[in-house]
From TrEMBL:
Organism for this UniProt entry: Flavobacterium cellulosilyticum
Domain Glycoside hydrolase family 65 N-terminal: 41-245
Molecular function in Gene Ontology: hydrolase activity, hydrolyzing O-glycosyl compounds
InterPro entries named in the record: 6-hairpin_glycosidase_sf, 6hp_glycosidase-like_sf, GH65_N, Glyco_hydro_65_M, Glyco_hydro_65_N
UniProt keyword annotation of Signal present: yes
PANTHER family xrefs: GLYCOSYL HYDROLASE-RELATED, PROTEIN-GLUCOSYLGALACTOSYLHYDROXYLYSINE GLUCOSIDASE
Official protein name in the record: Glycoside hydrolase family 65 protein
Residues covered by the Glycoside hydrolase family 65 central catalytic domain: 300-508, 518-591
Thylakoid recorded as keyword: no
Signal peptide per UniProt: 1-20
Amino acid sequence: MYLKINLSILLLAISISTFGQFKSDEWHLTANSRENYFGVAMANGQIGIVTDDTPLKTKEIILNGVYEGSPENGISRIVRGIEFLNLHLSINGQEIKSSTISNWSQGISMKEGTSTTSFSFKDLANINYTILANRAVPYSAMAIIEITPNKDIEIIANNYMVIPDELKEAKSQFRVLKDNQYLMPVFGTSAKTLNGKYSISASTTFLFDETSETLKQTGNEVGFSKKLSKGKKYRFAIAGGICTSKDFTDPLNESERQPIYALQQGIDNLLNRHKDAWAELWKTGDIQIEGDLDAQQRVRFALYNLYSYIRPETRQSIAPMGLSSQGYNGHIFWDAELWMYPTLLALQPEMAKSCLDYRSDRLQKAKQKATIYGYKGAMYPWESDDTGEEATPTWALTGIFEQHITADVAIAFWNYYALTQDKSWLRSEFKVLKETADFWVSRVVKNEDGSYSILNVVGADEYAQHVDDNAFTNASAIEALKNTIKAANILNEPVDPKWIAISDNLVIHRENGITQNYKGYNGQIIKQADVNLLAYPLHVITDKNQIEKDLEYYAAKIDPKDGPAMASGVLSVLYSRLGNEKKAYEYFVKSYLPNSRPPFGVFSESANSNNPYFATGAGAMLQAIIYGFGGVEQTDRGLKYNKGLLPKKWKSLKIIGLGVDNKTIIIE
């Protein structure tokens, strides 16, 4: 009753204050207020361009997989790139500023991956400013500006670039290249990361629908002037790209090729290729909810963000905040494998595979970490960057002791094989399973009664440090070992008898019929779901009565103030599978609503934080849809489609593009 009442009040309050600004459109989110603004990343898996409420300006650009030591403590941090799409625009000698515009609105098109800001400038003109990170051309982006004059006017438009403080030795240049009759004006800025690890270059040019204008450099800006006639819409674009020495030997010249390519393609060609790439993603992986526009918008927005933060075949994974900020330094956590990966595995398997490629490429560093601490096999870092070494700040005990990450990685590898049944892939990646299994053999201790324990860890419940036999750590190790045994049998590889002995005898403690969070647990508040994860996504607890007991007990123990969003998503899945529609729906709503921030409903990590976009939470909410209401179940033989459960508020749930055969299921 307490949960229901509070959720109803919260839903009403947020609907009035924030989401009343939304238009009733399942593909578009629209804001008409700039108050308490939290932007959205226009991202293509390579670069993330975060929207701003300031006209003609972006907030920041995040570069996927590019890390440099931070000035605070030297710990690696994902790098902010040169902001290259910003525009200074004057009309009749008057500069457009935040204080001089009216009728501001901003819309996010999830279908097309664009953000469009609209406003009026005095009585002179109405302006639209659309930005996109091109899904089809991964290192490029574009801003499209449309001006509708209310009277005859003259405009001056100048592209300028913002260099973040963490970059140094910035140099700008403007040159007009020529190839036969083609003139190619290119404006660029190059810089180095703080410690000189990488070089970064961004380059742009202007694209025009009609006659190209002559571009001129004024200080550190490049642009043009033009007279416009009343009522005649005028469109131009800033197009270009950003490249780094992480991916290119010569990032400067490659970045210049981006605007040169754009010049020959034109605005509509580039825009259409971008739209087509997004259309293909939605065609192969979408969730449609009939009868609840709010839920539809939020679910699709969560999918949009997950899809935005990764690309197939890039061998990159997803950080908790994706490409929306430098939150958690852009490091890769268990968030990728446990919370975001299951949704990608179901709807976009090739994106999911990229997360695994990231781990496979860093196996040797995981083996090195095991050696550092006196263990065998591979011990994956709690926080990982481009190197694959431990990147957790030294003050955080999680970096050394939150070791379930090693099992989480191995389980994700097995689940990819289970989905695809690709034995060739399994053979090529078996080394990850074997090395992580060997780690657990060296990590456990044998008790006098023949059972095994894992001592001195931090579990999923990070409030409990230096505990023995944490439920999730032990259970994930059990599942990882059993999966490794199955893989070895499929491939006719040797099975270490210790894998069997440990997986059969690793301790899971119970007291008074309740699975214990860890040995000696005595009812303390927990940070997030831990024991409940043993029923889903793990398969260690399968007894319905035990699942119900653990649910009832631990749902009341999760920190209501600072607990992250993921726990509610898992509880929703479990209640769906138990057939409890009421509680499943309550926890589904709780998995996103308290964490939503204006004006678009971006996720924050907890109800008490403001650090969007929390892609981890989005992943958990989507699991509640797919693996809960949708009835989808991961098995060793691929996805199994159970009956599912439809919330009373919904008329139907349709999930498109499941598994390797792109299956569609409908629950009515």
